[in-house]
Design goal:
Elements: H1 2-17, E1 32-36, E2 47-52, H2 57-73, E3 77-80, H3 94-102, E4 107-116, H4 138-150, E5 160-169, E6 175-180, H5 189-205, H6 213-216
Parallel strand pairs: 2-3, 2-4
Antiparallel strand pairs: 1-6, 4-5, 5-6
Amino acid sequence: MNNVITKFNCALRMIIGIAPLLLTACATNGVNSIWLKPEGVPAPYQHLIVLGIANHPKIQRAYEDAFVQAFKAQGLTARSSEALVPALNPKRSKTIQTGLLRAGADAVLVTHLVAEPTKSAEPLPVRVNTVPEVYRQLAPYYQDVYFKVMRTGYYSGYQELRLESNCYDTKTGALLWSGRSQPLDPNSEQTIGQVVAQVVMQLRDDRLLALPRADRQTQTYD
């Protein structure tokens, strides 16, 4: 994991051009702005694909590799978006869901860095009751974020960077879970690494992920 995070940091500084940091490292405060499907999750998910959205292939691969390793550490089957090629076409985003099903995934985690134009005046809530309408289905969310991130200057003049991760059911394309990190410090390997682990553990705590076999013997889902 450390090697993956080092590559992430180097690529991030190179592509986004971070010099004197405007960010505050918050490595221990966990995930916030968490939205969980009100009706609950049909069943814990075991086979995931990680889909990173970035304006450079190195950044995308770093997102995906970090999460894939973290999911595998939890005893899950996880793969990067390479499993979706050639279905990964932002102009035909509805084909992504078909590609996910063909790849045998039951859930997909979509993750990207959100560039905030202003600093938060106060801490964000841990839980939220609503999300933007475009978040609710995989296809429109992916298309919206992709073209936003690829727009020239998206990462210029930001005040904070947060890692946003959304988890979708591959059969329905419906949003199951959404969360954001505290502001990131790309110069800190510990910060980035902890955020990835925290997202995965939060997904597990919110009962979206299948428990490792050893844990299943001592814990059951209600």
